[in-house]
Specification:
The chain has 10 helices and 9 strands. The protein is of the alpha+beta class. The protein has 2 domains: about 70 residues, no CATH class; about 130 residues, no CATH class. The strands form 3 sheets. A 4-stranded mixed sheet has the order 1-2-4-3, with helices on one face. A 3-stranded antiparallel sheet has the order 7-8-9. Strands 5-6 form a two-stranded antiparallel ribbon. The termini are far apart.
């Protein structure tokens, strides 16, 4: 009788041990170890990757950083904009060499008349890059002058909000740009809204984006520019915003489209008053 009791106790303990082991394995599958590499993480875990402003963030950058969306912050995860050199630049600017991961290696401007060039950019490319970024500096310095040109000569408007009716997925997927962030939403000819969006919103990368056009009249997204757009602007290499279009035209000396010719004529007059 005692042997049967002991046997029952031993079997019960064994079953309890097996059940505990099974529950532990299930728990590990639901909560992977934090030491797992990011390359093995799912897109859902990537979308919640932490982002914190670096300790050495320039105070001038705080408004820009505060404007970033959740996807913008995910896309910049791991970026560092540590300033490696800060020298006087052309036209009263500050020419900063920053870490190669800053804005995923893309040159840009920042408040305080700063032109920021990641250190991976070859010296041979810097001259044309600085010319492009100088246009953005002028846009920052004289916002009313430029917005007046865009309205009168290019038929752009600058609504403060996204267009009514556009699906939320496009609002969420919009990629912010440090050279255009104060007026991210633009409307052309009272109808079309060019928008730069991430190629893969589930796993956004700054260098992987494209422009779409929201047609306000037909309430639909276009993956290619409308005919009216290309007839006026042609095919500038950066077409998401008038700030970028004009920087491309002025850097290249482009005169191949009606939009470019209007800009070049206006600029010859405007630059004498800078």
């Amino acid at each position: 009788m005692i042997q049967w009791i002991l046997l029952t106790i031993i079997v019960g303990l064994a079953l309890a041990y097996c059940l505990h082991a099974y529950e532990s394995v299930e728990g590990m599958s639901d909560y992977p170890p934090t030491s797992s590499s990011s390359s093995s993480s799912s897109s859902s875990s990537t979308s919640t990757a932490p982002f914190a402003d670096p300790a050495d963030t320039d105070p001038d950058d705080l408004p820009w950083l505060a404007s970033l969306s959740k996807l913008d912050r995910v896309a910049r995860h791991g970026n560092s904009c540590t300033v490696m050199a800060d020298n006087p630049g052309p036209e009263g600017t500050r020419l900063q060499t920053v870490s190669r991961t800053c804005e995923s290696g893309m040159p840009h401007t920042a408040d305080g008349d700063r032109i920021r060039i990641p250190d991976l950019i070859p010296e041979a490319l810097r001259e044309s890059i600085i010319r492009h970024e100088l246009v953005h500096i002028w846009q920052r310095r004289s916002p009313e002058l430029w917005s007046t040109f865009y309205r009168r000569h290019w038929s752009f408007e600058f609504p403060g909000d996204p267009p009514a009716g556009i699906p939320d997925q496009y609002i969420q997927a919009r990629r912010s740009n440090p050279d255009t962030w104060r007026h991210p939403w633009v409307r052309w000819m009272a109808r079309w809204w060019p928008i730069a969006i991430y190629d893969q919103p589930d796993s956004p990368r700054l260098r992987e984006s494209h422009t779409v056009w929201w047609d306000e009249h037909r309430q639909q997204i276009l993956d290619t520019p409308p005919t009216e757009w290309t007839s006026f602007f042609g095919y500038p290499s950066q077409d998401e915003h008038p700030h970028e279009i004009s920087a491309v035209y002025l850097t290249d000396g482009d005169m191949n489209s009606e939009a470019a010719r209007r800009l070049q004529r206006w600029w010859e007059i405007a630059k004498s008053h800078r």
